[in-house]
Amino acid sequence: MLALGGIAAAWAGLLLVFAVTLEPHGDELYFLAAGDRLDWGYADQPPLLPLLAHAADVAAPGSVLVLRLPAVALTACGVFVVGMLARELGGGRKAQVVAAATFAVSPHLAVTGSLLVTPTVDAFMWAVLTLLLVRWVRLRDDRLLLGAGVVVAVALQAKYLVLVFCAAALISALLVGPRDIVRRPRLWAGAGLAFAALLPSALWQAWHGWPQLRMAAVVPAEIDQLGGGRASVVPLLLLTAGVPIGAGMACAGLWALLRSTALRDYRWLGWASAGVVVFFVVSGGRYYYCFGLLPLLWAVAAVRVEDGRPAARWLTGRPAWALSAAVVLVLAVAVQTPAMDRVRALANNSGGWRQVVEPVHHAYQHVAPEQRRTTVVVAEHYWQASVLERLWPGRDRPEVRSPHRGFWYFGPPSEQHDTTLFVGGDPGPLREHFRTVVPVAGDDPHDVRVWLCTGRQQPWSGLWPALRRL
């Protein structure tokens, strides 16, 4: 465990450097905005991350480090989880260290492990869930199944995707064994706990017309727009797992789970992993939806390495480790450079927020003083709205709204707001509802465009539903 502790400490140190130097991610700012409006659910999220963001903001207002401490802690603990997975599978010290080191040289975790975003929490919870299931296979202690239900209950507060893994695992167990798992009362007791934890956010979704289900059509369209489409899911998953170590170990681990007679008792988890990947490829999910499967596959491959399997041993030679570590170090340097600010801004992801805030602030200051108190900022994208609400300079921030995604559900502007500053590329949806729509900022191609809209022709309560988009 000392070796795992050393890897975890080094990994946490690197993540803390990222945590204090990287600008807020768009989703982090959105969670802060959502946390100011605590609810049982949101259009695109369960309530956990907005709640964590709100707690961090109350404890240390404006501190990005405090906001990100839960993410850093979970990612560092992931080192121990993957090491324990290797031990449960029969691995000794070497296997545990190899599995933990593979976890630590993953580019995906290097980039997201310090961010309070859903993939960070989701991947950790999946890893803990697979650890409990692997341990149950070895011990047949049904208290572990109850514990798995608790883990699923917590995971469902961050993302609903764990239900896909649970369904795949149950189907695989029925097809290839252990079939007796479905006859264990504590499995269903754990499922009951998970259902009870899911119920509040499910009721919120039902009350608001199931927006999360409509998101299932939005995500594939976004992936197609970025290029690659469904065909990019597996390549991106392997690339961000780490080249060559992470990708090679993942493939070797899955192959061993499906083919090795020594791992026959765990084969159902291999088929469940394959089923999850196929599901997200077919349904058009994002590549990182599958990332929580990798700790198990890495642990399996690490045990094979320790056993001296030639097909696995070549993956962990010094050149492979050097290349994988170099990729992470290059990322560590690259994300700090000024050039990356422009890349992040173009990706509308994180960084480059000055190009969003300054033009809007400048346009607002040029609105006639008597008109400002009835001016609202309406942003085209929910990240833009989050940025403007959380990073506005000074105390004169106007009301900020967005018809996009979860921000739409925060409600329309107040009816006294007759003047609108629209932030976005195309004000087309507003032209038919305002008498005049004129550009007031955005001549610089690197800045967002801002439009002054006056002469609103109908109440916001009637206009807002027409503007909604996911």
TrEMBL record:
The keyword Cytoplasm does not apply. It comes from the Bacteria. Its main location: membrane. Residues 44-204 form the Glycosyltransferase RgtA/B/C/D-like domain. GO terms for molecular function: pentosyltransferase activity. GO terms for biological process: lipopolysaccharide biosynthetic process. The chain crosses the membrane at residues 65-85, 144-175, 187-207, 236-257, 320-339. It is found in: Cell membrane. GO terms for cellular component: plasma membrane. Keywords: Cell membrane, Glycosyltransferase, Membrane, Transferase, Transmembrane, Transmembrane helix. It is a multi-pass membrane protein. InterPro entries: LipidA_mod_glycosyltrf_83, RgtA/B/C-like. This is Glycosyl transferase, family 39.
